[in-house]
Structure formats: C-alpha cells, structure tokens
Amino acid sequence: MSYTEVSSPGGMSKRLTNRNTNRYSVTALFSMAAEQDVEVEDDLARAQKRLRELKSRISAQSKKNFVLDRDVRYLDTRIALLIQNRMALDERVEVEKHLEDMDATEGAYPDDRKLQQYSNLFFLLQSEPRHIATLCRLVSLSEIDTLLQTVMFTLYGNQYESREEHLLLSMFQAVLSAQFETATEFGSLLRANTPVSRMMTTYTRRGPGQSYLKSVLADRINSLIEHKDLNLEINPLKVYEQMIQQIEEETGQLPPNLPRGVPPEVAQANPDVQAIIAPRLTMLMEIANSFLLTIIESLETVPYGIRWICKQIRSLTKRKYPDATDYAICSLIGGFFFLRFINPAIVTPQAYMLVEGVPAKYPRRTLTLIAKMLQNLANKPSYAKEQYMMTLNPFVENNKARINQFLNNLCDIGDFFDTLEMDQYMALSKKDLMINITMNELYNTHSLILQQIEALAPNEKQHLRVLMDELGSAPPQVPRKENRPIELPLYSRWETPIQDLTASLMTENNLTQNDILYMETKSIFVQLIRSIPHAAEKRPINLPALAERAATTKDAVLVRKGIKVKEMLRELEEAGVVSKDDDYKLMREEVAAELAHLGNMREKVLMESRSLDAVYKTICDHNNWLRSQLEQYKAYLQNSRLTSSKDKGVTGVGVVSVNGKEKKPVKSTVQGPYRFTHAQLEKDGIIVESNVPDNRRPHIYFNITSPTPGTFIIALHYKGRDKAILEMDLKIDDLLEKQKDNKHLLDLEYVQLNVPKVLGLLNKVFVKRRT
C-alpha cells in the first residue's frame, strides 16, 4: 500500500483528498484483513507471509550492520593509536571489549516492575515522536550514534511498516523544523557534521535506501570499473607527473625541459598536458551525464521517506527564507540527496556492496571525479575548491535546469497524514506491539532522557516526567557480553486497550451495525473462496452455495466460518441491505472485484520479494565484510600482544589472551613458508592487477613466511629458479594503516594485491595457527 493512495475493494486506487474518509478507511481496513488473513493458505497468503518474514530479516540485519559499522569506525581510530604505540594498557582492554561476542547465557533482566515501566516509556517514545525529536537535537555528537541505533533500528526498526515509518518521519519533521528555526545563516544549513546530519545519513542507510542504490548505481559503476586501464585524471599536476614518469621509463632519462616538482600553473600551461587532458574532459562529461540520466530516470523508485525529507527541506527553506531563489533551495535539497545519499555510494561502492572488491586505481579516481561533478551540479558553487574542476563547468551549466527540475520533482510527493487515519485503524486491530531491544539500549535511552528531562518534560504531570520519576536513576551499562536482547511489549498505562474493534469503528465513524456486518460478510466470503480448492474458478459466484459448502467440509475452521456467514447473509437480507431476488448482486460483484484485486496483488508481492531478496543478500554481504574487518582487528591485537610479550624479555614465548582467558604459552617460531599459486590468489581476489604475461603465470608462485608474530615476508618465485625474483617485508601494522587510510592496494612491482584480502589471508594462515 502506497503512502498517498489506498486500494479500493475493487482494485481501483482512490486518492484521499481530505479527512472525511472514515467509511472508506474502514472499508479498506476489511479489504486489508482479507489480504492478510492468517488462516488462509493460498498462494497469495504464502507469498505475503514470506515477504513479511523477509522484511523482518532485513530490518534485523540492518540493525546488526549498524552496530558492527559503529564498532569498525571506533576501532579504526583506536587501532591507529595502537599502531603508533600511543595507547595505554587500559585503553587496549577497552578496545578488546569491542571485539567480545555477546553471551546469551550471561546477564540479568530487569525485574517485572521495571520492565512494565520500560514498556510504558518506549510506547510513549514511539507513539509521540516529539520527545525523541527533542532528544536528538540535545545530545552531543559522541552520544548520537547509540541513540540513532535505538531510534532507527529498534524503536522504528520495522522499515517496511507504514505506521512506524510515519512516526519516524514525524520525528524527522520536528527535528528539521527546529534545525531551521535555530539556523543563523543559509549557507550552514544541513552541511555541518551535526547530530541532525548524522540522523539523515543513517536514515538513508536503511533497507529501502540500500535497495535503491543497488538497483540504480550497481550496473553503471560495474560497467565503468571494468576498464581498469582507463586513466581520466585531469589534475594538471598529476597528469604532468605521470607524463614525465612515462617518458623516463621509456627513454631511461628525464628530459631537461621537463623538471620535477613544478608548481600547478606551470603544469597547467604545458601544451602536452593540455593535449592529454582535453579528450579526458569530454569523456568524463559523457560518463557523468550517463550517471545523471540514470539517477533522473529513477525518480519513481526513490524511497518515499527520502523524497519526503527532500519535501520538508524545500518547504522549511521557503518558510524561513521567503526570498531564497529556486536554485538556492535546490542546492539544499541536492546537498542532502547527493552529499548524504548518492555520492558516498559512488566514491566507495565496495562499502555499499555495489561491486565485488575494491575498484582499481584509475576507475576509483574516475568515480571520485564523477561524484565531485554531481556535487558541484547539486550545490552550484560559484567557485571550485580545486581549480582544475572549473574545466568541467560546461557539465554544470548544461545540466543546471535539468537537475533543478529533478530535485523539485523529488519533493512532489503526497503527505502521509492522508493515510495516518488508516494506520490508526490498523494499530487498533493489532493485539501486540513489540520491539526487540538490548539492555544497554534501554539503559542508555533512560540515561539520556534523564539528563535532558527539564527540556523534554518540564511539567511534573506530563506522562514522560511521571514515568522517569518512577524509573529513577539509570542503571550503568552492562559489559558487552552480557548485553542481551529482550522482547519488550509496548503499551500505554493511560489508554484502555480496545478489545472490540467493531464497536470502536462504529463509535468513531458514525457507521451502523449493518455497515460493519456487510463488510465483515464480504471479507469472510473472500476468505472462503481463497481457502476452498477450485472455488475461485466457479462463475458466477453462488454465495449461499459457497457458505453451505464451507459449513459441510471436514475443516473445523471452514465449518465455523460457513455457518457464521450463512447467518450474516440472512441478517443482511432481513435488513434490506442485500436481496436474494437478484442473487445478492452487489455482494457478488464486490467479492469478485476483491478477488481480482488480490490476484493482481500476488504478482506485486512476488515482484517485491524478488527485489528484497537482492537487498537482503547485499545487507548480508555487507555484514560479512564488516565481520572480516573485525576479524582483522582481532588478528592485529593478537599479534600486538605476542610482540609486546616478546619485547618484555619473554624470549620466544608469548601469552595469548582471548576474550579475557589466558591460553597456554605460544612458542614464537618461524612459520611457513606457505605456498600460493598466481591462479589461486587471482581467483580469491587477492591479486587485483598483474603485469605478469599470461603464458608465464602458471609458473609463478608466492611463498609467505612469518619469522616473528606480526611480521611477514612475501616472496615471488618462478618455477625452476632457486632464488626469489622479489621479496617484500611486511608488518601487519602497515597493512592496517593502509586499510584505515583507504589505500587498498599493495604494490609488489609485478602484481598489485588487495590489502583487506591480504590481511584476511594472513589472519587465516598464521594468526589462527598461533592461537
């Protein structure tokens, strides 16, 4: 169901133009009940069940990835200090805690009374997003990631459920409104790295955003990176350096008229450099145009929430700055859509699982230039940070009007308030609201609210204040391995749960008992046709015969429904709502229309499932990649402990500590050599590029030795020769530092290796053997 339309029982779409749609909403509610009846077991029901499970898995996996990603970012900064030997012992222990696995058998739950209070608190936070919106603005940048984990992946973690999405976007609306109210100058809006900008970026990393990036960018990027040798560098200084390096390699000497270390203006003025750059500019603009066209044509597939945020940025800007030009407004929208969403995926497609492995040197640079061009187009700056980018201004000038039109079109999306009413009915029909939350998320949210309670609930009678007074002080964070997840039911102590949905609908919507009875009867007939074999094939539909057939089957559920619907049909006839004289024509037509709608729906469900299967695979791939990063950090810490033990005079022996438990001493003996063929390393993606001629590759092999923990020698050999052609000494510190600085290639003269995969290989072959 889309956000701006609901499906009518006849399969038609009807736009809700005002709030006087109560009866229609209730009709749609029964229509939705017919779609999602859990007792039905036809193809549609099975497809919908699988789709719901898939969406649930994507939501759960997205949360795991967010947590892992945060750990990797934290460890990136801490490992850098460890590499430089500037980390104290207690800091090392803290780093190691980030690598501990959670033990489901350890840790204690809060008592029942506390759990009830947390259930009330999180119901209030979820259903009244203004509290979270205020909290997100008040916390510091160091606190925002933990809060975002709870907000984006726990409180509103069901990314494909419209009720939670609506509530989350309501929170965004409040956060953005406040951001605009407090803004002091136009240029700084949404650009700085603030809790609000981090929120917006995190939102784009949820399942729907990742799905969009994969469907729109993956093919375009993969076709570009196939051309490993296509050099489109346009920085005159770099082109000049590459040019003289090539001349030197070919002639064996450097021409006197081409000195090294010239300033940028000299390089730019060189006619040979200009001749090299000219065709590259043309090609870059062609590639950038193809990316732009692909993005513009994807308008209808941009996730609703991302378009809705764009819409808020436009309307808030117009309100705050009524004199702002359309170009200025579009630059803010473009800042969010391109800077926070599109461009990170173009620059580092491997981190978004859009490509396998790290792109080679030249395509990587091309992707960076494409992202810069799109950013300049979206931002429309009057100057370029790098002077050489000014040469690409024709791309900006030629596409200014087109990008403005696209950014404005992004904002043309219906508001979700039209369908919130529908969602309220669906919420009434839900017996259980539940979130899956860890102990530390509970305690951290509790602590943050307590710190800001005066701003969040200044009045002591406000519900939030009452709950926080009862909860008292926040418990401390539990150790990582005791941080168990719990299923927390959500309910409000101030609202009586509605047991009778029908009575509620009648009271709130001025519906008669007959209105409800008619819709419920139709819904049961649809369920019967879906449940009884071949019933859907018989036309015209004979409603009394269908009810009789159900009532006389051997299935107890069908018997109950058959008897019930016969009685309901009789009541409707007595009330004059339907007539036996015309064979219940109105009811028959509506049941047939509902079935036609459900038939069309099955195809949509299957198509959505296929699309989300790809998303789920991508998210799982990303999870595996993040886990491999953490494994490499574990390997590094392992080696650093072995090395430091050796340095302290424990000659040849190191004590290994894994998850706080000491293992037996490990002798520091030479390990290896282990042998790997060129073909093997190429197949595993460890060799990214090779200058070895094809006919010689079968005769090439690599020996890898570890003389001491954390140090390695990679030797390149040619079969039949005793001596290695090439040897390289490596320290694991150097490899980790390369990885941290996004230098993903290791140059061995004849071959270039993928740094993360080399780390993985060393970890697998050496570190695990030592433990």
Describe this structure in words.
With 771 residues, this protein is of the alpha+beta class. Among the domains are: 108-197 and 431-477, GTPase Activation - p120GAP, domain 1 (Orthogonal Bundle); 205-411, GTPase Activation - p120gap, domain 1 (GTPase Activation - p120GAP, domain 1), CATH 1.10.506; 669-770, no CATH class. The strands form six sheets. It has a four-stranded antiparallel sheet. Helix 9 (207-225) packs across helix 25 (585-647), helix 13 (304-320) runs antiparallel to helix 14 and helix 15 (361-379) crosses helix 16 (393-411). The two termini are 54 Å apart.
Q: Please tally the helical runs, counting DSSP H or I stretches of 4 or more residues.
A: 28
Write down the Rg. 32 Å
CATH topology-level fold name of the domain at 205-411:
GTPase Activation - p120GAP, domain 1
Name the strands of the widest sheet in spatial order. Answer: 9-11-12-13
Q: What is the CATH superfamily classification of the domain at 205-411?
A: GTPase Activation - p120gap, domain 1
Distance N terminus to C terminus?
Answer: 54 Å
- Basic shape: globular
Tell me the fraction of residues in β-strands, as a range.
5-15%
Protein name: Ras-GAP domain-containing protein
Domain Ras-GAP: 163-379
GO molecular function: GTPase activator activity
Organism: Hydnum rufescens UP504
What topology does this entry show?
Blueprint: E1 5-7, E2 13-15, H1 22-36, H2 43-83, H3 89-97, H4 112-127, H5 130-138, H6 141-155, H7 162-182, H8 195-204, H9 207-225, H10 236-251, H11 264-269, H12 271-297, H13 304-320, H14 326-347, H15 361-379, H16 393-411, H17 417-429, E3 433-438, H18 439-451, H19 453-456, H20 463-471, E4 485-490, H21 501-509, H22 513-531, H23 543-551, H24 556-574, H25 585-647, E5 653-654, E6 657-658, E7 661-662, E8 666-667, E9 671-677, H26 678-683, E10 687-690, E11 700-706, E12 711-718, E13 726-731, H27 732-740, E14 745-747, E15 751-754, H28 755-770
Antiparallel strand pairs: 1-2, 3-4, 5-8, 6-7, 9-11, 10-15, 11-12, 12-13, 14-15
Helix pairs in contact: 1-17, 1-22, 2-6, 2-25, 2-27, 4-20, 5-7, 6-8, 7-13, 9-14, 9-25, 10-12, 12-15, 12-16, 13-14, 13-16, 14-15, 15-16, 22-24, 22-25, 23-24, 25-28, 27-28
GO cellular component, one term: cell cortex
Protein name: Ras-GAP domain-containing protein
Coiled coil: 37-64
